[in-house]
Amino acid sequence: MAQNYSFQKIREETASGTKEFKPSVVIDSLQLIGFLSANFEISETDSSTIYTFYPNERYMWGGLSYRMNGVTEKRLFKELENGKYANRLLLKKKLNQYLKEQAHNKGYPFAEANLIIDSVIKNSVFATVDIDFKNQIVYDSIEVVSENEIVKVNYLQNFLNMPVGKLFNTSDYLNIPDKLKQLRFIKLTEPPLIEFSNGRSQITLFVEKIKNSQLDAFIGLVPEGESTYVTGQVDVSFQNLFRRAVNWQLNWQKYSASSQFLYTQLSQKSAFKTPLGINSQFGLLQEDSTFLQNSFELGVFYPVTESITLGVSYKGIFNNLIRDFDSTEVSQNNDPFRSSRINSAGFSVAYRQKETYPVLKSNLYFILNFDVGLKTLRNVENLPEEWSNVPVRSTNYTGMIELGSQQKLSKRFLLEEKLQMGIVENEALSHNDLLRLGGLQNLRGFDRNFFYTTYYAMLNLNYRYFLDNNSSFFLLTDLAQLDNSIGSVYAFGAGLDIKSKNGWFRLIYAIGSEIDEQINFSTAKVHFGYIAVF
Fold it and tell me: What's the whole-model pTM score?
């Protein structure tokens, strides 16, 4: 039975002009989903025009065949078998998906499909889908147009997955702008340009350099009793060494008179003409006169999608005691110190990238790291008896989750949030195995590595007001729940980031305290320095 649809439309037009209703569009839509004999009637009243639509009988596929480059093929789509509704809209959707997967992304960007209606008998439609792949296209070289050479062309072709001679992929070409955003030292100045000639594609990229390498230097003033001592920190980051997107970082900090930390990392995306990235790290920590810890990591990571990256790595941590402990120290230390070696396998998942500096826009990122390995105690025979009653070998577990977001609340206000959780566990847990918190990177208002804990949950908040597009003033709040021996701690303060032509001047003032303690302003931390960008 025919189904009738009616609606009213006021005939009077406004001064600005109302878009004219076209009943043919409705008829075309009905015919696309199988109502080939759909029609309509028009009736008039004093104030309106009424369109009544009659879909009538819905047609079925009586026979749908496929011809691929002139050769008849078997059925392609189960949903469009004989006896199914003659839904050309569904057929078009299926054909577009098929052409994308089997042709446009496999070297045939000009492939197309045409529907030929052979006959219509009663309510059955007999048709042929003619698919023509046309000419095969492969990648030729990429031309990069910029004032100076920013990145090596052969590296860029590998990074974009467009080596010379590979079959052209339409999706990869359309994804060039998003892909290049992963390289923080380069940006497009206009859309990519493509030309085809003699079975080859020539892609031209118009780019310019983004200053994103950084040199940060901070001086900290930390009161201790009636005196104040000076701490220091240097952070260096090069984003594009050798013009092959090699990233090198160096972080050094002296956070007390006899404690300092050194960390360096070298990584590259799409290394050795593969989609795999490589990562290597080395760290050195001297904690007062108690222990020395060095660590390393070697790993690879793979971009599953433009936003999600998976990684695996091998890690080693070596703890060495640098002095002996007398019986009084042994009895007073709840967490023993032990020399040890930990060899572990690491697994990581990352979603997007966090911003390297304050930007007035919304963003979300996620990082998950999990390590499992074998811990072996060293020099057990030299340990005090109270510290040696644990297994020489034990399984070590370490996990960390970081979820960060920032929301643009108005034209000038930005809310930055970062939630972090971490845990470490093994049967022979030592003080020098514990997770360390405190300092400018996590719990502001405390010295670096002020807290040692087996687990933590921490929330960092910045309420940032932008004075212009780059400079900003912010209030900060840090909240953390540590293991039972410590409890809850918090910090608050304010900071200022002033953008100059070649970097930022940064000033941060923060006070930290445990929940059940009174705030002591004499322990406040002041960090100031200059971040050079080049």
Answer: 0.83
